[in-house]
Design goal:
mainly beta, two-stranded antiparallel sheet
């Protein structure tokens, strides 16, 4: 049996450079990059089950893979800021496009359901919070929107 080695040929130094959202049915993208300092697309596996057939064979169901997008953001209370935009659009589907590094030739694209971010924080500090959006399907990579 042969061993196939997979080289690392395109490592990424994380520098989120652009995060765009397009609400379902909208024509335009909204750029909230300035409010976001971290973004992660994360898979998880729902619990599978084990089934024992009449003939005694064990069948393992691996469950379903689901994805989510988690963002860390600054709480800008401006009426047009990202925090209030999330409050206004919570529950809405949106296309999320993230360019993870300035030299990336593509963007990670994921359809998410928007939710509100936490509000508040520690005294005498810039208020930040995180928010996690459930995703439909898994991310794809696509050429950036100009």
């Amino acid at each position: 049996m042969a061993t196939i080695k997979t080289p690392v040929t395109a490592p990424v130094t994380m520098r989120t450079t652009r995060v765009l959202f397009k609400l379902a049915g909208a024509l335009d993208y909204v750029d909230h990059s300035d409010a976001i300092d971290e973004i992660t697309y994360t898979p998880s596996q729902s619990g599978g089950s084990t089934f024992v057939a009449v003939n005694g064979a064990t069948i393992q169901d691996p469950g379903q893979e689901t994805w989510a997008a988690t963002l860390n953001l600054v709480q800008d209370r401006d009426p047009d800021g990202f925090l209030r935009w999330l409050l206004a659009n919570s529950g809405t589907k949106a296309e999320l496009r993230a360019k993870f590094a300035s030299d990336d030739t593509d963007e990670g694209v994921l359809t998410v359901t928007l939710s509100s971010a936490g509000i508040g924080g520690k005294a005498s500090a810039i208020a930040t919070s995180s928010v996690t959006f459930a995703a439909d399907g898994k991310p794809a990579f696509s050429a950036p929107i100009v």
